[in-house]
Amino acid sequence: MASTKEKLIAHVSKEEPAGPTNKVTVVGVGMVGMAAAISVLLKDLTDELALVDVMEDKLKGEAMDLQHGSLFLKTHKIVADKDYSVTANSKVVVVTAGARQQEGESRLNLVQRNVNIFKFIIPNIIKYSPNCILLVVSNPVDILTYVAWKLSGLPRNRVIGSGTNLDSARFRHLMGEKLGIHPSSCHGWVIGEHGDSSVPVWSGVNVAGVSLQGLNPDMGTDKDKEDWKSVHKMVVDSAYEVIKLKGYTSWAIGMSVADLCESILKNLHKCHPVSTLVKGMHGVNEEVFLSVPCILGNSGLTDVVHMTLKPEEEKQLVKSAETLWGVQKELTL
Amino acid sequence: MLVSWWHLFLGAQSLYRHVLSMASVLQKLITPLSSGPLEPPRNKVTVVGVGQVGMACAVSVLLRELADELALVDVIEDRLKGEMMDLQHGSLFLKTPKIVSGKDYSVTANSRIVVVTAGVRQQEGESRLNLVQRNVNIFKHIIPQIVRYSPDCILIVVSNPVDVLTYVTWKLSGLPKHRVIGSGTNLDSARFRYLMAERLGIHPSSFNGWILGEHGDSSVPVWSGTNVAGVSLQKLNPDIGTDTDAENWRETHKKVVDSAYEVIRLKGYTNWAIGLSVADLTESLMKNLNRVHPVSTMVKGLYGISDEVYLSLPCVLNSAGVGSVVNMSLTSDEVSQLKKSADMLWHIQKDLTDL
Questions:
Q1: pLDDT for res B348
Q2: Which of A182, A210, A251 is closest, CB to CB, to B86?
Q3: What φ, ψ does residue B116 adopt, rounded to 5°?
Q4: Is residue A156 exposed (0-12), middle (13-18) or buried (19+ Cβ within 10 Å)?
Q5: If residue B193 lies in a helix (H) or strand (E), which one and from where to where?
């Protein structure tokens, strides 16, 4: 007795079904992980999405919810499991897992807690996707990208930190608001450490190639009447502000992760400010990761754009590097 | 003589430099060409309620590039501002240049489509019908304000129990019935098509199947319409959907009904699928597509239903709202299920006060 399926469909291909061609895994199904997942899905970037987490119920619920939207998507396979075997053959693995700072907890303690989590996660990822590109989002992102690099044994072009991609997006949004222009036409790069001591490179800020600092030489200084410096301050404060208002940030970081995934999966060779190993650049001597403009393609982070920085800007990068190394050298990896 | 001309020239040059340094970066950079008042938005979407469902709808609408302006409204002001800021920080990656929010409905003015997700949600194990009166009271505040600022809009009601609340919305809004739509069984049908397609190894969009009637426990799977490439599954398997079916296809519909409860049990709420389904409806309305969707519409006069109730039927959606309804050939059993749902909904609705 043939089943309905057998009566309806005749299988004709003699080939084994091919594996996924641009699989994305998201580790951690919290707010950031799921925002990244839905952004990747809505941008039609992947033919298979895998989700991993330790909380099994939440993980299964999130996977089901996404699967129920399959009619509206172009991602044929959405899988999820606590076991990393579901992540096999991923092209890009987005790591959003990790602990958040408890009240009164020192940064070093938070880092060590997250290092311990990464000690479990990273080797499991590599075991099943030895040729993947790791995109680290968890904070403090520059340190954790270094940690992921050390734990994974991957070459430095395959370990990328989301870094100041989001800071720069926020900067360009605020710049766009000030000028009445869409952010994609406002160019400005925020580099260095993701967070409080990020560096806005004022000399590069431009619209249609017209340098804004050329029009306003005081830009970025305290004597600037238009107070452009506060635009950067708002970028630094915005994360805290959003967290204070809604408890966490998710949408912007999710979209920025999808933006990076797109460049990698589609081999775009697009330039993004992301966190990479900067030893030997801009006077940095330590093995640390900081954000600089990088070319992203399907083999990961292939090139770094060497920015012409002012001495004060380079000094800031060197200072960040020293602070990061101060934390990193105390870690047990 | 030359000396005085030279001094005049120097004076003019220094004045010019002084004036130039007074101008802002904006003034130096940009020469405005068209002046006059700002154009109103042409494709504005408002989402009422910034809970998980509302935000999933918002993000889906943004990532599908359906709107030139998005407005968010809620009563919890901090959360509302935080959600708006978080979306705005992503504007580099989007094509929606204006994202606004406010407790005051004036931010929603001139919307083409208003998605209502406000209200309390199902607790674990709670049926949709239990939510009714709690949400009716919230709608009495929301709906008149929406219509005040966007009298020409199309309302999409998502809050549960959606069929009752779409009726409530229609009554409170005073809008013609074709401009008030309930998200209805659009999601149930999407889930159905996903689960059926999984069994057959094909993409959900290649499996055609409709779930109509009440969104929830007593939804009606129209087995006679299920097909792939026009091949009717019921013709291949006449027992499909019945208790005697050896392949137990009926189980798939049961899984659809249980889906929401299951996801709520696992993660606390559902949001992604409903968000995607709302964006799908928004696309048909915004782009005047005349696509057919199973959504909740006023069905009095159809299938022998004599009460003013909203149930999901296949509706042709365009920029005017529900353009027309497709008359599905239903079995007498399916018709009686619809009628039973209609009776149950009317039983609840007739006790609602001050509509």
A1: 87
A2: A251
A3: -100, 110
A4: middle
A5: helix B186-200
